[in-house]
Automatic annotation (TrEMBL):
Highest taxon in the source lineage: Bacteria
The protein's name: Uncharacterized protein
Length: 130
């Protein structure tokens, strides 16, 4: 299961739209490694003048890798994180997460990161099982 949903949040979802802040709290509490990694990448971005910041360190275990994959493979979770942090997230392999400034979406750096060429150049034998 991707998220541990509190009963009150599940009740709210069953009766209508859910507040983004409540959903983000659920994500933060359910996927702590993914939350911490995205937060760190966003903090790195905000502390600089560059268009993006990324993570190149693989997760310490399969459990953490699973959290990251669940967070970034879900349109709802990824979208909520992007709205919460006001960034565009991009993802390669099982661990390379980048946070782009919204003004950089469409930039050369962004296009290079999300390109098939960028994906291929980010491959290595160590990452083939992720």
């Amino acid at each position: 299961m991707s998220l541990t949903v509190p009963p009150a949040l599940l009740d709210a979802a069953e009766s209508g739209p859910v507040d983004d802040a409540e959903f983000v709290t659920c994500v933060r509490d359910s996927l702590p490694y993914a939350w911490q990694l995205v937060t760190r990448v966003v903090d790195d971005l905000r502390a600089s003048e560059v268009d993006f910041a990324d993570n190149v360190v693989p997760p310490p275990s399969e459990a953490e890798r699973g959290q990251l994959l669940r967070a970034l493979a879900s349109d709802a979770i990824r979208g909520a994180l992007e709205r919460h942090f006001a960034v565009k997230l991009a993802f390669q392999n099982c661990h390379r997460v980048a946070a782009f400034r919204l003004s950089a979406v469409g930039s050369e750096a962004y296009q290079r990161f999300i390109s098939t060429r960028g994906q291929l150049l980010n491959q290595s034998p160590e990452l083939r099982d992720c």
